[in-house]
Amino acid sequence: MDDVFTIKRGDTAPAIRYALDPATVVLTGATVRFQMRARNGSVILDVGAVVVTATGTPTVEYSWQAGDTATAGLYEAEFRVTYADGKIETFPNAGFIQVRVNQDV
Fold it and tell me: Which of 54, 58, 67, 87 has the fewest Cβ atoms within 10 angstroms?
């Protein structure tokens, strides 16, 4: 089942955070990108994300920027990890993180 993250149009908080599975993923020296597209459309975001170290579980996060949530709708997102050895793994491994940007008043 896909995970769902909901935010209102124009909001930049809260950040989108994702705990990686399996919990044995080693993020030391890794770089992370957050990618999002309109459902079944082209990529509209491909930006750097951060590794969250305070959780005890390998976790990644993207802090929304102005304009990222400007258009209400349903989006598909994922985090792409490039490990220190150059290998790449995408999370979630199956499906997507569903991002729902709800209309505001």
Answer: 54
CATH number at residue 86: 2.60.40.1220
Torsion of CA 86, 50, 17, 30, to 10 degrees: 20
Has this prediction a pTM greater than 0.85? Answer: yes
Full residue range of the structural domain in which residue 84 is found: 3-102
Closest CA to 47 of 74, 70, 77, 10: 77
Give the separation between CA 28 and CA 25, rounded to whole angstroms. 9
14 prior amide bond cis, ω within 30: yes
Q: From CA 61, how far away is CA 44, in angstroms rounded?
A: 17
| 20-74 tens-digit pLDDT | 988 889 999 999 999 999 987 888 999 999 998 777 889 999 999 999 999 999 9
